[in-house]
């Protein structure tokens, strides 16, 4: 059974697989890589997806729909061909088509999909995407943030990476920014790549900003110069005009000087002359919106701006010269946009499929992600305006999986139950955030005092949110898993959560770290008192980082420990370090007067060179 990666875009969708040792894009029935995310339903209830459906946007606009990704996770309903469709049912049609294409390409059945979502998608939107997969008949265990997928694709496709892979190594460490600008969403992320880990440090974005907004502005301008409002046109004319506007926008990209919108709509005889300068003026409000998530992501990442080496542009809208020029002016780092910027996400997904299938060459890669929105519960506010406050358990940009507990007390003495609500968002007052769910927890009868209880939120990389409440006086525990729209009562859901947490701990990085620790213990056992003392301190510190949620920290510490062990073993080989230690300098390492930094007499320096600063 095979796995397919699906980039479910607002405008276009793509499928990718891992085949013959590399990520490969799957062509559709027309041999094209991009399948328009458009669904049309005929009177018999048959759904058509892609290019043919796109044609029907003009001929049968009432039974055809595009851009439904913008409504994922809402209760929007579309009436097509006399039937009602939710955004997830429409997405399922697209996924189903891409899965069929992938099966054709691979010649085998596909039963699992890894689907990309905008990093800024919230819990409900993610859950709707997973349900879309299930409706299409495939298991979607993992959703990958679009910029993370793009980062994976880009980091492992540059020249350094190719050379490193050839030498059985990893690409050089780097921190870069991914600017993913598609048809309907903008995601900005700061990506930290080191060893086998591609880690997302921060994301920020706008779920309602994309190339479609430029099309709309151009269409409105075409109407304005003709003295008519866009809404005065019929639905099919509006659709035609939007398509013509999009064509003019693309033409402007290709020619990079000017383009004309000669509309086929009789009410718009005046031709719109479009230049990059004019487009920039028209789109100024959009550029103001672009700047905000950029600044936010860099600020949230805690990475000094000078450590960001480049900005990688992906997504179809990154092709626009006005976007590139704007970013070049705004950012102090090189801005790169490859020819294939609209397939970068899909290629990264293809690589991720390889990781999932444990394919040789990519089996040790780890992609870490973060929680894009803070998760909180509400607490009483004793001060005016007395609006309940959001008490954050998992702050946004926390690396996943994450788990956090806090102790609360119910506000009424003698209450029979406590209400624990889950909110998502960054606002101070709970009511300004989005309430996801609430849980009623039974409290003991006749309690004479306020009951204390510990609330634990666990949020994993597959967007599963677990809530656990333990009442202190009785020790009773209530556990629920939130599936994006309701509580999932089944034991299976709880088991999945625990399983996922366990497997996260089994990441190769942790295995490396544990091996380094074991190695340190062996070296210590064979070493002098001096070496033993020294390693005791180092491994004590190291062991505590094993529980850290930061893979980067773990990798740095593992590297440092291995470097120290290499040095000790090298010195042991020429007797330098041990001779030094056996001279009786067995005091606590790193302390005043410690002679670790002294020349061992043979040109080597034992454990000096900043190790004290780094370790002790
Ligand atoms: P994506 O969601 O990444 O497939 O991006 C789709 C968006 O990219 C749509 O709004 C397209 O109009 C836009 N796009 C694709 N190619 C170009 C181009 N050459 N110039 C301007 N916009 C483009």
Here the CATH topology of one domain equals Nucleotidyltransferase, domain 5
Q: Please give the alpha-carbon distance between the first and last residues.
A: 50 Å
Proportion of helical residues = 25-40%
Outline: globular
Name the CATH architecture of one domain.
Answer: 2-Layer Sandwich
For this structure, what is the CATH class of one domain? Alpha Beta
Largest sheet: 6 strands, mixed
Average pLDDT works out at 83
The count of β-strands is 28
> What is the radius of gyration computed over CA atoms, rounded to a whole number of angstroms?
28 Å
Which ligands occur here?
adenosine monophosphate
- Relative strand content: 15-25%
**CATH homologous superfamily classification of one domain:** ATPase, nucleotide binding domain
How many helix segments?
17
Task: Look at the helices and sheets and give the structural class.
Answer: alpha+beta
Low-confidence stretches: 499-506, 577-616
Protein name: Molecular chaperone HscC
Keywords: ATP-binding, Chaperone, Nucleotide-binding, Phosphoprotein, Stress response
Pfam families: HSP70 (PF00012)
GO molecular function: ATP binding; ATP-dependent protein folding chaperone
Summarize the structure.
Residues 580-616 are annotated as: Disordered. The chain is an alpha+beta fold. Helices cover 37% and strands 25% of the residues.
Walk me through what this model shows:
Keywords: ATP-binding, Chaperone, Nucleotide-binding, Phosphoprotein, Stress response. By secondary structure, the protein is of the alpha+beta class. Among the domains are: 2-167 and 344-367, 2-Layer Sandwich (Nucleotidyltransferase, domain 5), CATH 3.30.420.40; 375-482, Substrate Binding Domain Of DNAk, Chain A, domain 1; 507-616, no CATH class. It contains 17 helices and 28 strands. Strands 1, 2, 3, 4, 10 and 11 form a six-stranded mixed beta sheet that branches. It is globular and about 90 Å long. Mean pLDDT is 83; it is low at 499-506 and 577-616.
């Amino acid at each position: 059974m095979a796995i397919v990666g699906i980039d479910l875009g607002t405008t276009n969708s793509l499928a990718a697989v891992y085949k013959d040792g590399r990520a490969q894009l799957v062509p559709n029935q027309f041999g094209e890589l991009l399948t328009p995310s458009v669904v049309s339903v005929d009177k018999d209830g048959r759904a058509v997806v892609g290019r043919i459906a796109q044609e029907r946007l003009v001929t049968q606009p009432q039974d055809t729909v595009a851009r439904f990704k913008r409504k994922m996770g809402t209760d929007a309903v579309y009436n097509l061909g006399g039937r009602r469709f939710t955004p997830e049912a429409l997405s399922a049609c697209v996924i189903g088509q891409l899965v069929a294409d992938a099966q054709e390409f691979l010649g085998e059945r596909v039963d699992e999909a890894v689907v990309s979502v905008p990093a800024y998608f919230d819990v409900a939107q993610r859950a709707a995407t997973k349900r879309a997969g299930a409706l299409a008949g495939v298991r979607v265990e993992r959703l990958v943030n679009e910029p993370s997928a793009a980062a994976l694709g880009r980091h492992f496709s540059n020249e350094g990476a190719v050379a490193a892979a050839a030498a059985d190594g990893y690409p050089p460490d780097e921190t870069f920014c991914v600017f993913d600008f598609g048809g309907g969403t903008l995601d900005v992320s700061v990506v930290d790549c080191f060893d086998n880990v591609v880690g997302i440090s921060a994301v920020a974005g706008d779920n309602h900003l994309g190339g479609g907004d430029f099309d709309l502005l151009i269409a409105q301008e075409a109407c304005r110069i003709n003295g008519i409002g866009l809404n005065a046109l019929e639905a099919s004319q509006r659709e035609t005009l939007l398509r013509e506007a999009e064509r003019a926008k693309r033409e402007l990209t290709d020619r990079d000087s000017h383009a004309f919108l000669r509309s086929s709509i009789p009410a718009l005889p005046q031709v719109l002359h479009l230049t990059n300068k004019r487009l920039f003026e028209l789109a100024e409000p959009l550029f103001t919106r672009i700047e905000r998530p950029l600044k936010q992501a860099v600020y949230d990442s805690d990475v000094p701006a000078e450590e960001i080496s480049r900005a990688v542009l992906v997504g179809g809208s990154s092709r626009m010269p006005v976007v590139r020029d704007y970013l070049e002016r705004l950012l102090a780092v090189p801005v790169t946009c490859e020819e294939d910027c609209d397939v970068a996400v899909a290629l990264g997904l293809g690589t991720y499929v390889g990781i999932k299938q444990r394919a040789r060459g990519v089996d040790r890669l780890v992609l870490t992600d973060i929680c894009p929105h803070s998760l909180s519960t509400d607490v009483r506010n004793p001060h005016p305006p007395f609006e309940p406050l959001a008490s954050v358990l998992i702050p946004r940009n926390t690396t996943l999986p994450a788990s956090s507990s806090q102790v609360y007390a119910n506000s009424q003495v003698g209450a029979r139950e406590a209400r624990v609500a889950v909110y998502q968002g960054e606002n101070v007052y709970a009511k300004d955030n989005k309430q996801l769910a609430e849980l009623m927890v039974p409290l003991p009868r006749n309690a004479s005092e306020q009951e204390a209880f510990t609330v634990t939120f666990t949020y994993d990389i597959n967007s599963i949110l677990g809530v656990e409440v333990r009442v202190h006086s009785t020790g009773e525990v209530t556990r629920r898993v939130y599936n994006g729209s309701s509580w999932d009562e089944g034991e299976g859901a709880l088991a999945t959560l625990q399983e996922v947490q366990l497997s996260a701990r089994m990441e190769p990085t942790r295995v490396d770290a544990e091996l380094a620790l074991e190695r340190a213990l062996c070296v210590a056992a064979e070493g002098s008192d001096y070496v033993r003392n020294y390693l005791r301190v180092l491994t004590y510190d190291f062991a505590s980082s094993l529980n850290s949620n930061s893979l980067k920290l773990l990798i740095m510490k593992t590297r440092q420990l291995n470097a120290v062990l290499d040095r000790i073993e090298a010195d042991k080989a020429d007797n330098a370090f041990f001779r030094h230690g056996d001279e009786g300098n067995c005091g606590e390492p790193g302390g005043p007067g410690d002679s670790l930094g002294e020349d061992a007499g043979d040109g080597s320096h034992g454990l000096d060179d900043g190790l004290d600063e780094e370790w002790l």
